[in-house]
Amino acid sequence: MHPREGWSEDGSRRPGLSRRSFLRGSAGAGLVAGGLGPLLAACSGGGAGSTGGSGTTTIPLPRPNHPVTWPIFADNKAIKSGLKAEQGNTLKLYNWVAYINPQSLKNFAKKYNVPVPQVTTFNTMSEAMAKLRSGQVNFDIFFPTIDVMGQLVEGKLAQPINHSYIPNISQAWPDFTDPFYDGHWRYTVPYTIYTTGIAWRKDKVPENPYTMANPWAMPWQAKYKGKVAILDDYRESVSLGLMKNGIFDLNTTSQSQIAAAGKSLQQLSSMTNVHIDNNDYTEVPSGQIWIHHAWSGDMAAAPAYLPKGVSPDVLGYWFPTDGKGPVGNDTIAILKGANSPVLAHLFLNYMLDLPNALTNISYTGYMQPLTAVTPQRLVSEGMLDKNLMSTAVLPSYFRRGVMELQLPVPTDVLWQQTWQTVSHGA
Question: Which of 3.20.20.450, 3.40.640.10, 3.40.50.1370, 3.40.190.10 is the CATH number of 194-326+403-425?
Answer without folding.
Answer: 3.40.190.10
